[in-house]
Specification:
The complex is a heterodimer of chains A (395) and B (244). With 395 residues, chain A is of the alpha+beta class. Chain A has ten helices and ten strands. Chain A folds into three domains: 17-126, PAS domain (Beta-Lactamase), CATH 3.30.450; 135-242, Helix Hairpins; 257-394, Histidine kinase-like ATPase, C-terminal domain (Heat Shock Protein 90). In chain A, a hairpin with a 4-residue loop joins strand 9 and strand 10. Chain B has a single domain (2-243), classed as 3-Layer(aba) Sandwich (Rossmann fold). The chains are: A alpha+beta (395), B alpha/beta (244).
Chain lengths: 395, 244
């Protein structure tokens, strides 16, 4: 009751303890020590759908789902006995209709002066929204943990890939060392005995020989020369393919034409029956590695002589015009089949025709590498009329 | 006399019972790894994936303290843990007191354990809902300080704390265990304390243990629920005393 009547509004405010108990915005339950309900308020009765009379003598267990029963029995019940209370316990009540009512429950034991347990009071709060939020939190946590695990797995994968890459790099270094050794073996261990054979043959030629022996010695000399050429090719392949490409030493001071003429004459001597036409028009100095360009010309010309029609001339020409150097070699004869043409600059890509005439299949590959190393191109066009290889590079 | 607590609790659950035996016996109380004041870092998911991991701990305690012919008092799942330990080391326990034992909680054909598989799964979800209450970081642990008057009102649910993840794993191991085949192998005097209206270990489960455990006595208690040591300590003490 309020005493200051003037400000009291429409009527005096009253609060009855009885009404507070029955209609409080929370549920009240009182349990006997054996868990049976002996007093309950109207709020709880409304929430659960049973009348207070129906609720009395029910056990709290009867209002819980199975999981809640187990857990109440094994954890919250003992907890209540030991500490005399529990707070904020999440339980699911099962209503008369069978639906779930998520609640939070506080409980306290009422004891007598000697500490004996008389009964237990429970305060029940509707916690539908809170439970939903809590479940979302638990789920979010599970998602976060899953993401964390995924991240860790990803990290481990990246780590192992890095290690693998490192191993590959180390392996590449080992390969590079092996390549240098391989080139050294080719350069010395294979060439030296070949030089010894060649020297031996020259000595033999200086001694009286019958005709047959003379022919054999010349054949051996041809073979050693061819073999020296093959070793050169394999060395270049090792440098180019296994390493970082062929190296070139450019030089503009020396003219290129004498080198080309030297190549022509060498091959002409080797094949005196063949016609080699030359068309040189070199008016400007060419910025190139002369030894490499000589090698390229020798490969192309040798190729043309080997594969071209024997009764038709092979032509070689070189020009400087419009700021670039161009070298071409043509031969007549059967055109190169398209399948062969596709892979003609790849190593070991020997054509299907007349394999006996060919070397290791490295000549055109090396020529192509030389062109690339000069910043130029090597192209081939093969028709019924002629097969033409053209090398172009900026001056 | 070795007291072993069950799932959901810690050694404090024996506080009304164990002191009654202190004059006649050396009493040994402990927390299972993951519960109460145990060292959570000692939890090894692989070791504790079955009850035998917990039984091994019991053997370690026995070896450390040089126990021989002790009385084992195990509540709930610890009844089975003690039983497994006594099979491994028969000299450790002279007799077994099994409070609310269950060799299997889930129904299986004619066997009625009291629960279905789905209900046990529901329990595991329920544990997540009470995550906050479990959280070990919520309030300072006061285990080992069991004097009730000192418990301040600000301390919430301080007993029976456990790591939520370990609680879930222990629940799974407990409720999915099946030790029915082990009962017949035990050759020890045993006392089964069976409560009335125990929904965790119903009376028919206690009777099953009694029938299948050679040399066992069954005492049906007036106490209701699953924890007679807390709800009816005097009756519990009297039954154990009569047995030992």
């Amino acid at each position: 009751m309020s005493d200051d009547g003037e400000d009291a509004g429409p009527g005096p405010l009253t609060e009855s303890l009885e009404d507070l108990y029955e209609n409080a915005p929370c549920g009240y339950l009182s349990l006997k020590p054996d868990g049976r309900i002996f007093k309950v308020n109207l709020t709880f009765s409304k929430w659960i759908g049973f009348t207070p009379d129906e609720l009395v003598a029910k056990r709290l267990h009867d209002l819980l789902n199975i999981a809640g029963r187990i857990f109440y029995e094994m954890h919250f019940g003992p907890l209540l006995r030991m500490q005399g209370f529990f707070n904020e316990v999440a339980l699911d009540l099962v209503t008369r209709e069978g639906s779930r009512l998520p609640v939070l429950v506080n409980a306290a034991e009422k004891r007598d002066a000697e500490g004996r347990h008389l009964f237990t009071r429970l305060t029940v709060f509707n916690a539908t929204d809170r439970r939903r939020y809590q479940r979302e939190l638990v789920e979010a946590r599970a998602v976060a943990e899953a993401a964390q695990k995924e991240l860790e797995a990803l990290n481990a994968k990246v780590q192992s890939e890095l290690l693998a890459e490192k191993a590959v790099l180390l392996d590449e270094r080992a390969t590079a060392a092996l390549r240098e050794e391989f080139i050294a073996v080719l350069g010395h261990d294979l060439r030296n005995p070949l030089a010894a054979i060649n020297a031996g043959m020259r000595l033999l030629l200086g001694t009286p020989l019958n005709d047959k022996a003379k022919i054999i010695v010349e054949m051996v000399q041809d073979s050693t020369a061819r073999m020296a050429g093959l070793i050169d090719n394999v060395m270049d392949f090792a440098r180019g393919r296994l390493g970082g490409g062929l190296s070139v030493e450019r030089n503009v001071a020396e003219p290129i034409e004498p080198v080309l003429r030297q190549v022509v004459s060498e091959l002409q001597v080797a094949l005196p029956g063949r016609v080699i036409e030359t068309h040189f028009a070199l008016s400007e100095p060419v910025h190139c590695d002369r030894r490499r360009i000589g090698q390229l010309a020798s490969n192309l010309l040798g190729n043309a002589l080997t594969h071209g029609a024997a009764d038709k001339p092979v032509r070689i020409g070189a020009t400087t015009a419009d700021g670039r150097f161009e070298l071409f070699v043509t031969n007549a004869g059967e055109p190169i089949p398209p399948v062969v043409l596709q892979r003609i600059f790849e190593p070991f890509s020997r054509g299907t025709l007349r394999p006996s005439l060919q070397g290791l299949g490295l000549g055109l590959y090396i020529s192509h590498e030389i062109a690339k190393a000069h910043g130029g191109t090597l192209e081939v066009v093969s028709t019924e009329a002629e097969t033409r290889f053209t090398f172009r590079t900026p001056l | 006399m070795v007291f072993a607590h069950g799932f959901g609790c810690d050694q404090n659950m024996w506080r009304f019972v164990a002191p009654a035996f202190e004059t006649e016996f050396k009493t040994v109380l402990f927390d299972h790894v993951g519960a109460g004041g145990s060292d959570l870092s000692a939890y090894d998911p692989a070791k504790y994936a079955s009850l035998s991991g917990y039984a091994d701990d019991l053997l370690e305690i026995g070896a450390e303290l040089g126990l021989k012919d002790a009385v084992f008092v195990g509540h709930s799942v610890s009844a089975m843990i003690g039983l497994l330990a006594s099979l491994q080391a028969p000299e450790l326990f002279e007799s077994l007191v099994l409070v609310g034992p269950s060799p299997r909680y889930i129904d299986d054909g004619d066997y009625l354990g009291g629960f279905s598989e789905a209900q046990i799964d529901e329990l595991l979800d329920f544990l997540s809902d009470n995550y906050l209450g479990w959280s070990a970081a919520m309030a300072p642990a006061i285990i080992g300080n069991p004097e009730r008057p000192e418990l301040g009102a600000e301390l919430t649910n301080s007993f029976c704390r456990t790591d939520p993840e370990i609680a879930k794993a222990f629940a799974r191991v407990t409720f999915k265990s099946d030790n029915r085949a082990d009962l017949a192998k035990v050759a020890k005097r045993a006392l089964i304390l069976q409560c009335s209206e125990d929904i965790i270990a119903p009376t028919q489960v206690g009777e099953y243990v009694y029938r299948n455990l050679p040399g066992s006595d069954l005492v049906l208690m007036r106490a209701t629920g699953h924890c007679p040591d807390l709800s009816a300590p005097e009756e519990t003490i009297a039954a154990i005393r009569a047995f030992v």
